[in-house]
Design brief:
The complex is a heterodimer of chains A (359) and B (197).
Chain A (H helix, E strand, L loop, with lengths): L2 H36 L15 H11 L10 H17 L9 E4 L2 E4 L8 H22 L3 H32 L4 H7 L11 H14 L11 H4 L9 H25 L9 H12 L1 H31 L7 H38 L1
Antiparallel strand pairs in A: 1-2
Helix pairs in contact in A: 1-9, 1-11, 2-9, 3-4, 3-9, 4-5, 5-7, 5-12, 7-12, 9-11, 10-11
Chain B lengths: L16 H4 L2 H15 L23 E3 L14 H5 L5 E7 L12 E9 L8 H5 L5 E3 L15 E2 L1 H4 L14 H13 L12
Antiparallel strand pairs in B: 1-4, 2-3, 3-5
């Protein structure tokens, strides 16, 4: 790898990280705004126009609070917990394809941190590590409520990861590729996976709610039962990191949903737009502008799902723990397996028939 | 006994498949919340927009003057006696010759102080006053203070300014009740507020 390529990759990763952080930051603002709007209030509106400086104010507050560590807590693990949560949340954004390619001086630069042929496996691996952040933090707090919250989070994440992985298998059977870039490229135009995998989509989105520890599956921090759950003992920026990691996870999973099921940067009529732009602006500029439009479409989809997360949060009450486990093991996993069988049958028998009929 | 017609009979019947699927119920819920998302917000942006608190709201005190601009207060001390929080204190003085245009009676309050930290805004001083001198304004609050000496209000803050007089639609409970009845029957629609009790 020569130096230019290395620098370009570094810059891309940097941009991706900054974008992820900014979106997560403004998700905290959006969450409060959406909560307010749904409850007929107006939400934060004092710091800056429409409360837009609120995340800065919150972060400032978090930074200047006393960084307290309980006397009997395991000091190193107590610090490692939020760091791990933050790290794993950030890592997953590296492989998400934000757009197709940008042409600069004859070079094609992919709008993606790392193009990996096992992208989706990488995402799953990193997201599965996220539970360590919660588990380590909950254990290190030396508090029974924290530990219970952490154990809940761990068992919930592991349970729902199974159904999530199984629902994903159906997508992989259709695309026969693990690369996220490849999966998106196959959904060109309006050929989105949601039309082939509605059941898989419902299973996947339910599981991603559980993976992000969001309502209705926010049992790890269930304040009626567990005080504050795994972050009971946390304060200051360490608590901030835990909450922030949740919002980053939310953005990552929204991005993954839009990549896997809603065609990422693809939108209907994109070929027509591409041709018009190339005709009007020349091959390189036209291509770049078309890519940027695709990226905007991608972010639109991802932001819609972030909104959907919030919308659901302020609509549905929390599940009971046994209901959560029943739903995960007895409903979603059998449904996901059923979905795999249906998809397998369709790929084997229906697809050749349809292709033959179309030709 | 039935209080509302919104109560529902509890039933333990088996849920149908549609109900057990859970998703239609969630969709209904989401529809309700998105309706609220776009509905008009009930919040009043307080410091910028102040809503009318009604004609009987008890805000800050005012010492009224009469139509010729003379202070009504005669320093009888009934308000101070009536005050359950012991917030009012005063020093009486005798009216000199040539001060007839300043004070209505022969005796007046040389000092009249209300401790706004003690005051509970019950309005008993207003009811006790035989000269209709002290009132709690329905349109103004005691503003936020930052120093302790801003809390005790003297005559400089309390006595009415003749250039912007405090006006009310009704000055007594009886008057207010009569006015309400007239409004309800449609006899009167708008009442001009007046400055003199």
């Amino acid at each position: 790898m020569d130096l230019t390529e290395f620098l370009v990759k570094t810059a891309t990763i940097f941009v991706v990280f900054v974008l992820t952080l900014v979106i997560a930051m403004y998700s905290t603002w959006a969450e409060r705004k959406v909560a307010g709007f749904i409850q007929d209030r107006s939400g934060p509106n004092r710091a800056g126009w429409g409360g837009l400086l609120q995340p800065m104010a919150d972060a400032g507050k978090m930074f200047f609070k006393e960084d307290f560590i309980p006397a009997l807590a395991n000091k190193w693990l107590f610090i490692a917990g939020p760091s791990l949560a933050m790290l794993t949340a950030m890592l997953a954004s590296a492989v998400i394809p934000f757009g197709s390619t940008i042409r600069v001086a004859g070079h094609e630069v992919a709008m993606q941190g790392v193009e990996s042929n096992i992208g989706i496996l990488y995402v799953f691996g990193v997201v599965a590590l996220g539970v360590y952040g919660i588990m380590v933090g909950g254990w290190a707090s030396n508090n029974k409520f924290s530990l219970l919250g952490a154990i809940r989070a761990a068992s919930q994440n592991i349970s729902y990861e199974v159904a999530m992985g199984l629902s994903l298998i159906a997508i992989l059977m259709m695309s026969s590729s693990l690369s996220l870039g490849e999966i998106v490229a196959q959904q060109h135009g309006m050929n989105w996976n949601i039309f082939y995998q509605p059941l898989g989509f419902i299973i996947f989105i339910t599981c991603s709610f559980a993976e992000c520890n969001r309502v209705p599956f926010d049992l790890p921090e269930c304040e009626t039962e567990l005080v504050g759950g795994y972050h009971t003992e946390y304060g200051s920026m360490k608590l901030g990191f835990y909450l922030f990691a949740e919002y980053i996870n939310m953005f990552i999973s929204s991005a993954i949903i839009s990549v896997l099921y809603f065609g990422g940067y693809n939108y209907p009529g994109m070929d027509f737009v591409y041709q018009q732009l190339v005709k009007a602006l020349g091959a390189d500029t036209g291509h770049n502008v078309a890519t940027l439009i695709g990226t905007a479409v991608f972010f639109g989809k991802a932001l819609f799902f972030i909104f959907f997360y919030m919308w659901v949060r302020w609509t549905i009450p929390r599940f009971r723990y046994d209901q959560l486990m029943n739903l995960g093991w007895k409903k979603l996993i059998p449904l996901a397996i059923f979905n795999i069988i249906i998809t397998g049958a369709a790929v084997l028998f229906l697809k050749p028939l349809v292709t033959a009929w179309l030709n | 006994m039935q209080l509302t017609n919104r109560s529902k009979q509890v039933s333990n019947k088996e849920m149908t498949l549609m109900e057990r699927a859970y998703l239609p119920a969630i969709a209904t819920g989401l529809a309700i919340t998105i309706k609220h998302f776009f509905s008009k917000k009930v919040t009043i942006q307080y410091p910028e927009v102040k809503r009318y608190l009604g004609p009987v709201f008890r805000g800050r005190h005012i010492l009224k003057r009469d139509e010729e601009g003379r202070e009504r207060c005669t320093a009888c001390g009934l308000c101070a006696v009536a005050c359950p929080a012991e917030a009012i204190s005063m020093v009486a003085a005798e009216r000199e010759k040539g001060e007839e245009n300043l004070y209505r009676e022969e005796k007046y309050a040389a000092v009249y102080e209300v401790n706004m930290l003690r005051c509970i805004f019950c309005g008993l001083c207003e009811e006790a006053c035989p000269k209709q001198a002290v009132y709690l304004r329905h349109d103004e609050f005691v503003p936020v203070f930052t120093e302790r000496d801003q809390v005790i209000w003297g005559k400089d803050l309390l006595v009415e300014d003749m250039n912007s007089r405090y006006t009310r639609e009704a000055w007594t409970k009886e008057e207010a009740k009569a006015l309400d009845a007239k409004r309800a029957s449609g006899e009167v629609t708008n009442v001009v507020p007046r400055a003199i009790p």
